[in-house]
Amino acid sequence: MTKLGSSNARALKSFDNSGDRYRAPALDKGLDILELLSGEPAGLTRAEIIRAMSRSPGEVYRMLERLVARGYVGRSSEGDRYALTMKLFALAHRHPPLRRLVAPAQPLMDAFARETQQSCHLVVPEDDAAIVVAHANGPGNWEFGLRIGAPIDLVATSSGQTLLAFLDPTALKELLTRWANTKKQLAFEMLAPRFTEYQRDGYRIGPSQEVRGIEDLSVPILSRERYAVAVLSCPFVHRLDASAGTITDALTLLKIVAGKLSVF
To answer: Which of 115, 132, 196, 231 reaches 20 to 30 Å from 160, CA-CA?
Structure first.
C-alpha cells in the first residue's frame, strides 16, 4: 500500500481550514484529488484515494470519472490505479506570461551552461514561495540542478532572497501581511539588512543554505520599473579539472544573461 506523505495530508486539509467565505464543494473535491495525486508518481488505487480524502466511495468515484474524462487523470490498463496525466503540465506551459519569459530564456541558459559547465535555473514568484520554471545543465558527464516545478523557499534560498530584495513594494507589503507574526516574518527581518547589499550590487553570491560545498549565484530579471519578475540562479560547483571556469566568470556571464532578459 502506498504511504501518503505529510505534504499531501496538509494539502487535503487546506480548504477545510481556510475559512473561505465562498465554498464550491465539488470543485474542492476535484482539486483535492489533483493535489493528492501530484505527490504520488506511481499513482493510487481508488481505495487509497478514498482513505486519504475521508470521502465516501460514491463521491470519489464520480469525481475520478470526470477527471479521467477531461484528461487530467489517467487510469492504469488494469483499471485499478489513477495518476496525473501531462495535461496540467501542458496547461501551465501555455500560460502566455510564462511562455514569453521561458522561450527567450532557455537558449541563453543553455549557452551559459555550455560555456561555464555549470547548471542554472530560472524561478518566478508563486504565492508565498517561488517555483522553478526552466533549467539548463552543462555538457559534462555529471550534473547538479533543480527540477522544473520544484518549490523554492523565499527566505531560505539564494533565489528566494534575491526575489525578496528586488520585489515590487506592493507585492512585498502583501507578502509581509500574510507573514505577520510568523517565523517567516522573523527571518525576513533578520535578512533585511542584506537586501540593501543585494540591491546595491545587483546580485547575490554566497554559500548554499541547502547543500554544503555549493556557492549560489543569483541575479534578478527586472521589469521596466526595476522590480524582479524572476531570478536566474547558478548553484556553482567548484570543479578540480583545468577546463572549468572560475566563479567570477560564471557570475559575469549570469549577469549578462539576466540583463538580456530584463526589460528596460
So the answer is: 115
Assessment of whether the complete model's pTM goes beyond 0.90 = no
Q: In what order do the strands lie in the sheet with 151-152?
A: 151-152, 129-136, 120-126, 228-237, 214-222, 204-207
- How far is Cα 190 from Cα 130, in angstroms, rounded to an integer? 20
> What is the enclosing helix (H) or strand (E) of 151?
strand 151-152
- What single letter denotes the amino acid at residue 172? L
User: If you average pLDDT over residues 71-80, what whole number do you get?
Assistant: 84
Who contacts 103 (Cβ-Cβ below 8 Å, separation ≥6)? none
Length of the chain equals 264
> 243 versus 19: which is more confidently predicted?
243
Distances (CA, A) of 65 to 12, 46, 55, 110, 186: 19, 11, 15, 41, 45
Grid look-up 508565498 returns 128
Closest CA to 250 of 236, 230, 232, 231: 236
| Angle CA 142–107–151, to nearest 5 | 65
Cβ atoms 159, 123 nearer than 8 A: yes
Confidence check: pLDDT of 184 > 90: yes
Structural domains of the chain sorted by starting position, each given as residue range(s) with its CATH number in brackets: 6-90 (1.10.10.10), 95-261 (3.30.450.40)
